[in-house]
Amino acid sequence: MAQLRISVLVGSVREGRISLPIAKWVMDRIGARGEFDPELLDLAEWNLPMFAEPNPPATGRYTGEKQRAWADRIGAADGYILVAPEYNHGMSAVLKNALDTVYAEWGRKPVAFVAHGGMGGARSVEQLRQVTAAMEMAPLSAAVHLQGAAKLRDGDRFNAGEIEDRRLSALFDELLWWGNALKAARQGD
Ligand SMILES: Cc1cc2nc3c(=O)[nH]c(=O)nc-3n(C[C@H](O)[C@H](O)[C@H](O)COP(=O)(O)O)c2cc1C
Question: CATH number for the 4-188 domain, one of 3.40.50.720, 3.40.50.150, 3.20.20.70, 3.40.50.360?
Fold first, then answer.
């Protein structure tokens, strides 16, 4: 079976964000598994405009150049890992905007969360599960919640411990199962 294409989204664009070192850790570990074809999607680089297109994305009528390019990238993936900070008990606005920008391309694919914040980003993930389920994605139960992530940061690196690595590995196991199951189902459509 071909490797699953997994997009890892960096859910913060803030100067000095910890989401980027965490996403690099995810990329490093997912690459080492050899079962996935991972791609990093840095929302700071994408700089998607705040959604202001004339058509609701669920209509499939995309007009913006960036919107079309984003649809291509999201459509190319078989699943997603969202590296999600918690901002004021919710998901970051930039991550919600990235989700809102296109629609069908996300659907019928698994999405998993690597969250961080005071409560390990728990409230952000609960919101993300609601939103992504409404978008016809399959949000996974397996998640990584990083509490006190700043202590494991060393500049651009995130020095995960054994516990964090184990939880991430469990997330990859679930992503592989759901990713393959849903890919086979999509191909049978
Ligand atoms: C605007 C803002 C709001 C925040 N609100 C919360 C919050 O409600 N609960 C929480 O646990 N952490 C909160 N935090 C802390 C962040 O979740 C935490 O610092 C996170 O690691 C920031 O991710 P980033 O550096 O990738 O942007 C907030 C941080 C910011 C910048």
Answer: 3.40.50.360
